[in-house]
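Consider the tokenized backbone below.
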């Protein structure tokens, strides 16, 4: 693997009705949902490392410690940035932050684990 601490990735989206707490069932207010923000943060982490993984390898999320600190209304753009801060074998740790057009809206850490896609899917299928 060609990974190094300091690698970064970014992902952007616009808050739509489909990305609100009401739609996700995570709240009763029409603002950007925490699960949507978490997904955006994970996508930023994936963008930081996926181009550097060998063929047949990927990562899966294994941990999150996130704070969602500010509400974002429908119509505003949001952006997540992930920075690889730790490599421990196949375990990767990222610092993640999210922003809307006005301010930081969330931050925390995200952990991912490098997997062999074929073996991972075989193990998952064995549960059937």
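A designed sequence for it:
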């Amino acid at each position: 693997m060609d990974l190094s601490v300091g690698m970064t990735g970014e992902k952007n989206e616009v808050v739509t009705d489909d990305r609100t707490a009401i739609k996700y069932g995570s709240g009763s207010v029409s603002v950007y949902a925490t699960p949507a923000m978490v997904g955006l943060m994970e996508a930023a982490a994936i963008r930081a490392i996926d181009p550097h993984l060998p063929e047949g390898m990927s990562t899966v999320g294994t941990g999150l410690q996130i704070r969602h600190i500010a509400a974002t209304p429908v119509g505003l753009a949001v952006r997540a940035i992930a920075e690889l801060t730790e490599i421990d074998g196949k375990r990767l740790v990222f610092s993640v932050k999210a922003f809307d057009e006005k301010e930081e809206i969330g931050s925390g850490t995200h952990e991912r684990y490098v997997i062999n896609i074929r073996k991972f899917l075989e193990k998952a299928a064995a549960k059937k």
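The chain has one domain: 8-125.
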